[in-house]
Amino acid sequence: AEIREIIGNPDVLKTASKSNAICGVLLEAKALGLGAEAASMGEMVHALNLGFDPEKVVFDSPVKTIKDLEFAIKGQ
């Protein structure tokens, strides 16, 4: 299946920021409607700086500081 056909699948929501640190790859994923997966603050900030909708950024690190959680919740 072509990627544009897969995007309509609700199970396909995100692309990993870590494995796609090249801006062009993430921007193409964003243009296709994907969200981003971030396992660190740096990855989350990278995705947000590239214009990903915060509602489409999944911050799934098992180790988060209070500061990390406050940033993720408040966007600050």
Short description:
The protein is built from 4 helices and 3 strands, in the order αβαβαβα. It has 76 residues and is α/β, with parallel strands linked by helices. Strands 1-2-3 form a 3-stranded parallel sheet.
Please specify the SSE layout and strand pairing:
Elements: H1 3-6, E1 14-16, H2 23-31, E2 35-38, H3 41-49, E3 57-59, H4 66-74
Parallel strand pairs: 1-2, 2-3
Description:
The mean pLDDT is 78. The chain is elongated. The longest helix has 9 residues, at 23-31. The chain contains 4 helices and 3 strands. Strand 2, helix 3 and strand 3 (57-59) form a beta-alpha-beta unit. The chain has a 3-stranded parallel β-sheet. By secondary structure, the protein is an alpha/beta fold. The chain has helices spanning 3-6, 23-31, 41-49, 66-74; strands at residues 14-16, 35-38, 57-59. The termini are far apart.
Major sheet: 3 strands, parallel
Q: Report the structural category.
A: alpha/beta
Give start-end ranges of low-pLDDT stretches: none
**In order across it, which strands form the biggest sheet?**
1-2-3
| Average pLDDT score | 78
Principal-axes shape call? elongated
Annotation, overall tally of beta strands: 3
How do the helices and strands follow one another from N- to C-terminus?
HEHEHEH
First-last Cα distance? 39 Å
* Relative helix content: 40-55%
Number of helices: 4
Q: What value does the Rg take, in angstroms? A: 12 Å
Binned strand content: 5-15%
